[in-house]
Amino acid sequence: MDGTAIESLLHGFVVLLTLKNILLMMLGIILGIFVGVLPGLGGPNGVALLLPLTFTMDPTGAIVLLSCIYWGALFGGAITSILFNIPGEAWSVATTFDGYPMAQQGRAGEALTAAFTASFFGALAAVLLITFLAPLVARFALRFGPPEFFAVYFLTFCSFVGMGKEARHKILISMLIGFLLAAVGMDTVGGSLRMTFGFSDLLRGFDFLVAVIGLFGLSEILLTMEEKLAFEGKQAKLDVKVVWRTWKSLPRYWATLLRSAVAGCWLGITPGGAIAASFMGYGLAKRFSRDPDSFGTGRIEGVLAPETAAHAAGTSALLPMLALGIPGSGTAAVLLGGLMIWGLQPGPLLFVEHADFVWGLIASMYLGNIAGLILVLATVPLFAAILRVPFPTIASSVIVLCAIGAYAVHGAVFDIWLMVVFGIIGYVFKKLDYPLAPLALALVLGDRAEDAFRQTMIASRGSLGVFWSNSLVGSITTLALLLLFWPVLSDIVKRLRKPRGGLPTEAASS
Amino acid sequence: MNREKDAVVSRRTIELIVAGTLAIVGIGLAISNWKLGASWAADGPQPGYFPFMLSVMLTLASLYGIFDALRERHGARGDAAFVERAQLVRVLQVLVPTVLFCLGTEFLGIYVAGFLLITGFMRWIGTSRWITAIAVALVLMASLFWCFEIQFQVPMPKGPIEDRLGY
Question: What ipTM describes this predicted complex?
Fold first, then answer.
């Protein structure tokens, strides 16, 4: 259909295939698996921690390294889920349901092979989608002015509030905190100081990397300590025969794989994220199964479905980031921050001005996932051994890494303290079911959303009618409002359908 | 009976403290932004307009949070423990050394403070032997030093010891 995409992709492979980039890719994947296996380190803060190391690298090498950490983390989460019944990542929680029973029955090798292959399949589906859809979306988005951009930001925020699984007011509070933190410091339009209360350290504002490291990294260590995890794992043996036998059985589950891949891609592009996707994939597989009750006892579909969906979502979350400059997940938000630090403005112009970079990145998604599959199959025993290291050793090392990461962003010791404060906030918020992703998202996008809004207002002389001034911006704004009020609307529809249904059903919002 | 399992504080109490604090913060920020100018000028919103609206929304959402936490239907869940005694002890076992480590970073630099944190943590919180703890901490901090200071030239906070060594 679109020959230019394939041509650009081939060019991307040429950009990518240097010895240095290949080595960076392998390094990234190994580090990523490491990050995914360790509790307390995850995709977003793993990438955030290593971001400072890339400041002196060229953008292509840097993004290859960082995105490969992300793929590695997606693979790594499955190892702990299956062997130790401990999800290394939130998106691999659903994998424990059937993965661990399989390991208990001595089928760990089969479960691991299935999980990695499913991850690979999910990622491949998402990368294909990115290859062909992202340039189209970007070309379309070139027509966007400030009002359209604000409308798209608005749509992202509204879909978080409207579609989130947590209590609405908690999503809203989390997002508002993110916005307010983003607004601290110098006002980007007028230059006046906001909410600094005379502290010179606050002039810079709050950096979202520092917040991410605290909220996702340190808080996870606190939670893990509280739970007092005991690692009692199953042995990991992966021989070629098991891998081969599992691969031969996989085509039978094509429907499960396909369903999960589609669900994952959808949830990745709309900011539902990999976590929601993995549960949805599992739920779908169970619902469509002829024998739903056997799920949870060690069925291979129970491993395939969530892994495919999580990886598809994690990968496709990069589509809106590349094409529109809007991250679809926490990790995508951190990568977006990286782009800005390297002086690349994410958004539709990226495809025009930095085509080498974009296609190099997309090519690295293909190669990175192939390399990831091979590397992860080869190194499972090694990484399983890491989990036998006592937790205090891991915890203290991770704390030091978090501090180094926080300091490196601006070279300020103040940021280390800030990271600790964010860690405590993250711990309390997680325990009270406040979602953290909206906070990170609002912190990254807050300034840009406000700029877009105020530029629009300056152009339109303060008239809000501009958001319905043409069919494009009008339909995005309307869609955003629909999503925002979706819970209310669906309630009304439900009540109209059964007028004498007694008590209104309490939605799963609590 | 089992004091280890005693709830230090209930979930509802923490919900109320968090929502209450956020409501007060919201009001404070709203006032600060109102002073900055939060009205709608001829060319669109003034600098304080957005943060003002956000603060007001934060206050309202937090007030709803207080109302929600007090509602009946959260009864059993609200009474549940936010954190049990033994759990709190374990959390503090990480948090207090972390704060000391940050303090240490201010005076000794991150490498020495990190070395002390890892050694102490492995020895006292974990059950490693001194020799293992020191070896692990030394190798880890040395490789981080090599990685950041020498390989990637990203300077970290350093103290008197690195000074002596000429870095």
Answer: 0.90
